[in-house]
């Protein structure tokens, strides 16, 4: 990364919630800022370990490193601000001035410490770009967490299949089946299988299925769309992402038409996937298919139709580049969602989502952890 | 907050992982940056809503607001960088120059957009300070999540009580009982009860109990300390935090001595708690008690003794001020952990942790969601 520039070093500062720092360090860290420093002169990567985390930093940053970069955990000045420790690390490497690359979201105080010490800062998106193409180890992590995501979906489908109708409302295990009951049952399976539900289990029923981020509580009625979007985080920090939509005792009306349109759009989008293809064309194909079935192919939030983009990259962030509605070539090793949807705030919402790896081999993609599609929930998956 | 200064506004930018922004907005938001702007001239709080999140921003930021500040969700320039939208919001409020307060961790690019637009930035810790004292609504959230934390602990204790020994190793439900099995069982209960395990369930057994952040996999042996630290996050973003240490078929040796010392330190620390007391004295009392039982009262990570501070504030962050080893007066409404521990890398670790609310009423504190203490696990809690 540094090799292509005339910069003297790279610095980032953040806490455990900064995915870029997680990518650079593999350190799952604490909830307070720590620093990563890369110096090109000695090709050395340094993690300034936070207080009480030396052992974990050693294990995660050095012992489990998969590349050959020279790595060190620095414990000098534990307790000082991370920006100050980054400055000392640069100085210890003999870099007392010059240009330092930083991600644009580096905390402002860390940037000021670097500037006050005499360095010139230049922002870089090199790490963000590099993260798009996954290594085999990363693909393994994504595959594993997506398998657990599928197990969560199977639990949801089983509960819907077991539920019974009473006065139009679904009941399960002796009580009304709500979006919250379903969410908790899914999350318990995810936790039991060793991944974090991560607050991302979105379940809508009927009109709330048209709300892209509904996390409230609603009774689930017979005949309405039940949209289930599960995106847990695995032990190494990688996310899964899968959406299915079910209808219990549907009457074959709006929800069936929307489902057929969305499934056609999903298949059309998948057929586009291959290295070299412009990501924007994947979205255009999906939208065109939805339009062909008579639904508005471009719509704003709260309107009827296809209200969002067709997909996004998934890795240590749940949403990361590439964005499938933007012009950018797909590359082998990218992992993206494909997730067309049709929504009507008065009727419901249908979305189907696969997580796929772009491959050099035919047909140009592989669905990670395939899971059946069916509008009617089935007992055994 | 602005009233006490001659500043013209306050700006913060961050994503859903920024707890300060969550505190200011109550918006659970997406994983990309959005802006909060407060302008004193009209006493108006503005949330610059991200694309596709208008509805959720309206609900969480405005409909559920508990104060009387004038609030608005701004949708102009959706898709532009959050820093640029903050500038436009200030300009729309008639503030075209002057001093803007920002938290020191505001992203560097947002700070640059503000400076380039002609504003002078001054960092403030006013929000961090204000967050220390919890409102009744916040205390309610903390109480609820801590009750679920206790349910998770009860599940762990039950499993340990049910486990049997075979060749020195504990077995449960037909298989070896590992730290990972126990962690997953706890996390499943937490998820089922509607809170996020949040990657914070730390379980150590024997020597790994001396590792403050052990999340690896180890068999659990009879006679060794099993340290269980559970810190889930509730639906409103508030954390619980509780630690217990158990020993199955202990021989009354080191682990019993350490347990007695830690329990005495916990009680000594609790007795100190009251509004007006210096937080540092709470730590000093705990440490002195540990010393009185013959264990080193000051130790570094990896050494024998009390290797960390006695506690920290808990709220929308798992670790926030006040820090109990620093000189700062405790105040009514603060919620802090009290968690002394004794560790020996060759033998194990014992820690006991309560989450308490500082109260004006006697005895000066209240344990949120009390849970029994016992070195020997019991079946029914």
TrEMBL record, chains A, B:
Keyword field: Hydrolase, Metal-binding
Acyltransferase among keywords: no
Pfam families: Peptidase_M24 (PF00557)
InterPro entries registered for this protein in UniProt: Creatinase/aminopeptidase-like (IPR036005), Pept_M24 (IPR000994), Peptidase_M24B (IPR050659), Peptidase_M24B_aminopep-P_CS (IPR001131)
An example molecular function term from Gene Ontology annotations: hydrolase activity
Entries under SUPFAM superfamilies matching the protein: Creatinase/aminopeptidase
Start and end residues of each Peptidase M24 domain: 141-360
Keyword Metal-binding assigned: yes
PANTHER family cross-referenced by the UniProt entry: AMINOPEPTIDASE, XAA-PRO AMINOPEPTIDASE P-RELATED
Similarity comment text for this entry: Belongs to the peptidase M24B family.
Record-given protein name: Xaa-Pro peptidase family protein
Upper lineage: Archaea, Methanobacteriati, Methanobacteriota, Stenosarchaea group, Halobacteria
